[in-house]
């Protein structure tokens, strides 16, 4: 029985985890399959679509042959991601035949139908109603009101103990290499009270970790003039404080290094939110950043990093970078390596620059040869790996809390520390004494071994 495609983990450093589908449809229930590609924000869109479908009486199938139709939620971020999406659509057509396409790549329906004319419908990102209409046409609903009960927390595609919490859609930046604003529009923040209501339901249903995501988390509420409604202010600092009051781990992703981000760091030092910032620096040379049209300058970021660490010494900093951007010289790349030596970031991902249809960076002069991109990527990752290895080695002997993500048949527990986001960062492994552990437990360990990206530990008190 062929299971549906998922993101290959090596494609990009910002992919969502593999979707977990565990529904068991009742006999005769119409069922829909979901292939969810791309970033965590797309995974949240997939969850919302499936939640609506479950409310209408549809079952969710984890494989092609058990589904009456398949939705492919696509990614259009890079040409390689587009190729992956087209391949997934083709696979779904071959294995099932009834395919509805949505997501970022769906913003250009002619591109998809020109290659796969048999798809039933193509919709763009967060066009939930159009997706539902297409499903209704392909597979009419047949609800049983006595059986088809929707969980209060909706349908989740992540393990039960953590969940993504999308706080806004769209982006107001105009980075030359990115077409996300063209596909997903300008910043549109959810009301803070609605975010809190969703978060409360998730925590009540057993979620231990909330992963806050958006295109630009720092800008949350700007389009709402940071107004208050029903007792909650739409500002990232206020929202982080409110979320921290729920008792779950709160992890912040995609935070731009604006000056007021400093106001988040005391919340981390006080334990209200995890001491973890995911900040897309992208480069360190001022000229490169200017060609990228990035909203931050490199000189100030080092000062801010030093300030953040002075307030919260245990803070973990994760970032992504682009090497081989058009016009990047060897001197500019060396500046990035030198910046890495000084910044000492804990977690790092890296892209080799790719042209993307519609991106303004395509028209820049002096594109970098593929072999030079590869060489710079290798050198950058060697630097990042050495920094990671040294930082993890310094943790040997420390005691820390970890959350249990999985326990295999041999009793080895795969866990994460507060410094590790699901799928994109490292793990901590416990290989003995795990008989009484369950997935989702938060336990105390002492680190006794370190590798390049992972830790090993023993249970302690």
UniProtKB/TrEMBL annotation:
Q: How is the cofactor bound?
A: Binds 2 [4Fe-4S] clusters. One cluster is coordinated with 3 cysteines and an exchangeable S-adenosyl-L-methionine.
Primary location class: cytoplasm
Task: List, separated by semicolons, the cofactors it needs.
Answer: [4Fe-4S] cluster
| Source organism, top-level taxon | Bacteria
Where the record annotates domain Radical SAM core, the positions are 157-390
Query: Where is the stretch described as Disordered?
Result: 1-29
TRAM domain residues are: 393-461
What EC number(s) does its UniProt record assign? 2.8.4.4
Q: What Pfam families does this protein's entry cite? A: Radical_SAM, TRAM_2, UPF0004
Which PROSITE patterns does the entry mention?
MTTASE_N (PS51449), RADICAL_SAM (PS51918), TRAM (PS50926)
Enzyme kind, highest EC tier? transferase
Q: Where does this protein hold [4Fe-4S] cluster 2? A: 171, 175, 178
Its GO CC terms? Answer: cytosol; ribosome
InterPro entries from the entry? Elp3/MiaA/NifB-like_rSAM (IPR006638), Methylthiotransferase (IPR005839), Methylthiotransferase_N (IPR013848), Methylthiotransferase_N_sf (IPR038135), NA-bd_OB-fold (IPR012340), Ribosomal_uS12_MeSTrfase_RimO (IPR005840), rSAM (IPR007197), rSAM_horseshoe (IPR023404)
Q: Which Gene3D superfamilies match?
A: Methylthiotransferase, N-terminal domain (3.40.50.12160), Nucleic acid-binding proteins (2.40.50.140), tm_1862 like domain (3.80.30.20)
Record field: compositional bias (Basic and acidic residues): 11-26
- Reaction catalysis annotation: L-aspartate(89)-[ribosomal protein uS12]-hydrogen + (sulfur carrier)-SH + AH2 + 2 S-adenosyl-L-methionine = 3-methylsulfanyl-L-aspartate(89)-[ribosomal protein uS12]-hydrogen + (sulfur carrier)-H + 5'-deoxyadenosine + L-methionine + A + S-adenosyl-L-homocysteine + 2 H(+)
GO MF annotation terms: 4 iron, 4 sulfur cluster binding; aspartic acid methylthiotransferase activity; metal ion binding; protein methylthiotransferase activity
Query: Which biological process terms from the Gene Ontology are attached to this UniProt entry?
Result: tRNA modification
Identify the residues that bind [4Fe-4S] cluster 1.
39, 75, 104
Task: Name the UniProt key words of this record, in alphabetical order.
Answer: 4Fe-4S, Cytoplasm, Iron, Iron-sulfur, Metal-binding, Ribonucleoprotein, Ribosomal protein, S-adenosyl-L-methionine, Transferase
Q: Where is the MTTase N-terminal domain?
A: 30-140
Electron transport recorded as keyword: no
Keyword Cell inner membrane: yes or no?
A: no
- Known role: Catalyzes the methylthiolation of an aspartic acid residue of ribosomal protein uS12.
What protein am I looking at?
Ribosomal protein uS12 methylthiotransferase RimO
Q: Which gene encodes it?
A: rimO
């Amino acid at each position: 029985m062929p299971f549906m495609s998922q993101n290959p983990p090596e494609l990009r450093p910002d992919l969502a985890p593999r979707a977990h589908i565990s529904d068991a449809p009742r006999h005769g229930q119409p069922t829909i399959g979901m292939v969810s590609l791309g970033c965590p924000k797309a995974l949240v869109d997939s969850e919302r679509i499936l939640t609506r479908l479950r409310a209408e009486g549809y079952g969710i199938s984890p494989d092609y042959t058990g589904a009456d139709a398949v939705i492919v939620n696509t990614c259009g971020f890079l040409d390689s991601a587009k190729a992956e999406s087209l391949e997934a659509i083709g696979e779904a057509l071959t294995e099932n035949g009834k395919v509805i396409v949505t997501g970022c790549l769906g913003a250009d329906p002619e591109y998809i139908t020109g290659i796969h004319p048999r798809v039933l419908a193509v919709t763009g990102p967060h066009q939930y109603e159009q997706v539902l209409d297409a499903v209704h046409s392909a597979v009419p609903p047949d609800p049983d009101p006595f059986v088809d009960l929707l969980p209060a927390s909706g349908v989740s595609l992540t393990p039960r103990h953590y969940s993504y919490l999308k706080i806004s859609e769209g982006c107001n930046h105009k980075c030359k290499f990115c077409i996300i604003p063209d596909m997903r529009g300008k910043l549109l923040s959810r009301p803070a009270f609605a975010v809190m209501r969703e978060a409360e339901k998730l925590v009540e249903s057993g979620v231990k970790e909330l992963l806050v995501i958006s295109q630009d988390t720092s800008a949350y509420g700007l389009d709402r003039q940071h107004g208050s409604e029903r007792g909650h202010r739409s500002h990232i600092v206020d929202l982080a404080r409110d979320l921290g009051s729920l008792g779950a781990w709160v992890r912040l992703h995609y935070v731009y290094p604006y000056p007021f981000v400093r106001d988040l760091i005391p919340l981390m030092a006080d334990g209200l939110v995890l001491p973890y910032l995911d900040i897309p620096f992208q480069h360190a040379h001022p000229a490169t950043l200017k060609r990228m049209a990035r909203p931050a300058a490199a000189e100030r970021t080092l000062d801010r990093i030093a300030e953040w660490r002075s307030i919260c010494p245990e803070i973990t900093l994760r970032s992504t970078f682009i090497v081989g951007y058009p016009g990047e010289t060897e001197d500019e790349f060396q500046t990035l390596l030198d910046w890495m030596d000084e910044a000492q970031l804990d977690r790092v991902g890296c892209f080799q620059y790719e042209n993307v249809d519609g991106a303004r960076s395509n028209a820049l002069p002096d594109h970098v040869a593929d072999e030079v991109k590869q060489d710079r990527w290798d050198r950058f990752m060697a630097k990042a790996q050495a920094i990671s290895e040294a930082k993890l080695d310094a943790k040997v002997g420390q005691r820390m809390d970890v959350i249990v993500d999985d326990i295999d048949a041999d009793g080895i527990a795969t866990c994460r520390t507060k410094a590790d986001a699901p799928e994109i960062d490292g793990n901590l492994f416990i290989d003995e004494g795990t008989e009484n552990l369950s997935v989702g437990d938060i336990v105390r360990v002492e680190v006794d071994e370190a590798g390049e990206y992972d830790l090993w530990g023993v249970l302690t008190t």
